[in-house]
Design a protein that fits this description.
Jelly Rolls, mainly beta, 2 domains, six-stranded antiparallel beta sheet
Length: 253
């Protein structure tokens, strides 16, 4: 009789264990909301999308990384071992974060939470705020001007740098073409939400790129970009690596 009395208790314990959250964080790549797009010896670039009122798995960030917000967002950033942080984020915001922690991102909004996350595979060293503050509690060191969305110009502003890279924001007015100079260093381009451009690289077919897309440009390449929008600007972030020679080993997913 004792054997049969124990069965309900064992079933309840098994059900509770099945419902308990995972204690071991997932590693990147591997968290299912992070979709790997480009990987080479400098970066892993992910497109991240979390459905309304959904959350990521608990996942580990071992490396320094940067993320670019695509559209407004309202999230809880729950870092393991720390109080939860409520973040209301604006479209186009750029944040640099040191690795060495695990967290869950919970989407409080009725819209998807989207961003591009870039892991840096090499230590970044010291970070310097320039036009924006990617390091909290340190003001920008430069006073920068950003053009109106309908201004018919190509404009660039250095946002911040590290010992390893320079981050720059590029804006192209309606139907404006970016200067097609040869890239002295290799780098990653991240296109902001609402953007629509045509990009041309030597020996490759013309590409139409939109918000959330990423593109690696090897050192020595001559890149041509034209804004396809008729009445508004398109913009993108460039991350140029100071010690980069041509990196043709990039893999696009």
């Amino acid at each position: 009789m004792r054997r049969f009395r124990l069965l309900p208790a064992l079933i309840i314990c098994a059900a509770l264990r099945a419902q308990a959250p995972e204690s071991q964080p997932a590693h990147l790549p591997g968290e299912p909301h992070h979709h790997l797009k480009i990987e080479n010896s400098y970066v892993r670039a992910y497109y991240v999308e979390v459905a309304p009122h959904d959350s990521t798995l608990l996942h580990q960030h071992d490396l320094d990384y940067l993320y670019v917000i695509l559209g407004p967002a309202d999230i809880i950033n729950a870092v393991a071992g720390k109080p939860e942080l409520h973040q209301v984020l604006k479209d186009g915001e750029v944040h640099f974060t040191r690795g060495g922690f695990a967290h869950v991102a919970r989407n409080l909004s009725d819209a998807p939470f989207r961003n591009v996350t870039i892991e840096f595979l090499r230590p970044q060293g010291k970070v310097h705020n320039l036009c924006i503050s990617v390091i909290p509690n340190e003001p920008p060191t430069w006073l920068c001007h950003f053009p109106r969305p309908d201004a018919p110009i190509a404009h660039s502003s250095k946002l911040f740098d590290t010992d390893e890279l320079v981050a720059e924001l590029h804006s192209l007015g309606p139907k404006v073409r970016a200067p097609g100079s040869k890239a002295k260093k290799g780098g990653l381009l991240v296109f902001h939400d609402g953007s629509s451009v045509r990009a041309e690289l030597p020996h490759k077919t013309s590409m139409t790129l939109k918000g959330g897309d990423v593109l690696w440009v090897d050192a020595g390449s001559r890149l041509k970009i034209i804004n396809l929008k008729q009445n508004a600007s398109s913009s993108y972030l460039s991350l140029i690596f100071k010690d980069s020679a041509a990196s043709s080993s990039s893999r696009r997913r």
